[in-house]
Amino acid sequence: MAMNSQGRDSTPHSVSVTGDVVTFTGNKALQQEEALIFELDNPGAVGVDLPEPVTTKTRLGGLSPRPGVGLPQLAEPDVVRHYTRLSQKNFAIDTTMYPLGSCTMKHNPRLNEKMARLPGFGDIHPMQPVETVQGALELIDQLAYWLKTLTGMPAVAMSPGAGAHGELCGLMAIHAALDARGESHRRRVLVPESAHGTNPATAAFCGFTVDTIPAEENGRVSVEAVKAKLGDDVACIMLTNPNTCGLFEPQIKEIADAVHAAGGYFYCDGANYNAIVGRVRPADLGVDAMHINLHKTFSTPHGGGGPGSGPVVLSEALAPFAPLPFVVHGKDGFDLIEHAKDAGKAQPFGRLKGFHGQMGMFVRALAYMLSHGADGLRQVASDAVLNANYVLASLKDVMSASFEGPCMHEALFDDRFLKGTGVTPLDFAKAMIDEGYHPMTMYFPLVVHGALLIEPTETESKRTLDQFIGTMRHLAQKAIAGDLAHFQAAPRLTPRKRLDETQAARKPVLRWVKPAPQAVVAQAAE
Nearest Cα to 192, choosing from 169, 156, 223? Predict the structure, then answer.
């Protein structure tokens, strides 16, 4: 097979083999073989007519502009078809179950999207005068009220743009509070081994040193292990609850009390809040700061389809240090405090981003909250935990559950059931792709060898879960039966088969380069 400089098959009419079916085009029915848009370049074919730009004197200080930016030229139908075909290759929550653990890939209700597109929300500009965006400020204020009520916390910073950004906000508030107390020597942060990787990264970014707390054999953090690490240089602990093993931390209140007694703060990673929303108030557990991923718990679009949003709820001790800007009730309606001089007795540590947060995500999250109500949000947590335990109970006889007993919102398995088969967790994941599933989270949390972390969320029906469970049982039994070849050849049915992932990571091709004409290549070969 001839390969071009981008590592793609350059055969003019490559064949496609699916079972015994061979096609001339390389297409497989509705699954179209698709080139890069740069490879589809057809000079002179454009979908729009633009007037020639007026020639002006260069203002580049004598530098010569490049003759072109290298964008491909295509007619409108070609562009539409290209991106439509690419969209058909995407795996999405709108196509089937997305079992990624620790990610809470739940359905995004279409009502949320309609609300976000309402005039006054969808077309406002962040630099409009405050008096022209009173409705938007009221919505931010109402969402903040719901977040404070659900968590039992007195304050919330709305501007952080994602979960890790929220962590940064919380730790910067803790940093500012310690400095205000005259305790700038407190620069050690306690982080459990099972924490999300962003926790130690954020702590280090803020100038703290990270001290790791080992996990117990039951997958949890013990208060004794925390007490052994405490000292007068501890700034805070960063603990996830439920933790990344999908387990509730039963000693969390005792841990919080111990850290507070030592003069530190308690930062709770709120990535898994979906498991306890409406059922447990973080304030009652002793939490001082916790970010809330609106995409994980309140159904706003996830990740790059978002953008993300990570409001941070703060305790009374940290509330004065919340970042700018924030909404207040003014004499003429709602107002936005954008400068420290206008913050009264508050001592904001500064500003985290250019404007006021992710407005579109605020609208979607509040629509979700109002649709469910307090009782509905409580049911969300209950159903998420029920679904995860159904998966755990249905698979633990053929797959190895990492810990005894029930789980919270996600079921954690490891690779012991694959021992002696020659099948690796990665092989298992590739076989899942052929079955039409995005693999679960693999090799995380790191405290479990060969981890397979499954989070079904509350939005999946029993019928969907039964099909997923049946698929997992089928693949597990196939591996145990010794069908190694099936797994090592997977995936067979994708546009691209098993790739050399090590080579791709070490030598990624990040920029398309137009290949030299064949005549030039032939001449160079001579």
Answer: 223
Q: How far apart are CA 298 and CA 306, in angstroms?
A: 12
Pairing of strands 452-454, 411-414: antiparallel
Contacts of 167 (CB under 8 A, 6+ apart): 198, 199, 202, 238, 267, 269, 291, 310
Query: Residue 165: is it exposed, middle or buried by C-beta count within 10 angstroms (0-12/13-18/19+)?
Result: buried
Give me the helices (H) in 152-251, please: 163-180, 198-205, 223-227
> Rounded distance, CA 277 to CA 151, Å?
8
Express each pLDDT in 471-508 by its tens digit: 999 999 999 999 999 999 999 988 888 888 889 999 99
CA nearest to 271, candidates 246, 305, 304: 246
Residue 254 · residue 223 · CB < 8 Å = yes
* Cis bond before residue 311 (omega within 30° of 0): no
Amino acid at 181: R
SS3 state of residue 191: strand
Query: Which residue carries 């359905």 as its tokens?
Result: 107
Rg over alpha carbons for the chain, rounded to the nearest Å, is 27
pLDDT tens figures, 180-209: 999 999 999 999 998 988 999 999 999 999
> Which residues on adjacent β-strands are paired with residue 157?
312
Residue 87 has which token pair? 């969209």
Tokens coding 384: 């998420």
What's the CA gap between 298 and 377, in Å, rounded? Answer: 9
pTM over 0.85: yes
Helix (H) or strand (E) holding 355: none
Other beta carbons less than 10 A from residue 149's beta carbon: 12
* C-alpha dihedral sign at 194, 199, 204, 209: negative
Domains (range + CATH), the chain: 111-368 (3.40.640.10), 379-506 (3.90.1150.10)
**Cβ(409)–Cβ(391) below 8 Å:** no
* C-alpha pair distances (Å), 177 with each of 165, 170, 204, 315, 318: 18, 11, 18, 12, 7
DSSP codes of every residue in 421-436: T---HHHHHHHHHHTT
123's CB contacts (< 8 A; 6+ apart) are none
Token duo for residue 495: 């546009």
- Do residues 162 and 292 lie in contact, with contact meaning Cβ atoms separated by under 8 Å? no
* Amino acid at residue number 131: E
**Residue burial 204-230, b: 16+ Cβ < 10 Å; e: rest:** eebebebbebebeeebbbbbebbeebb
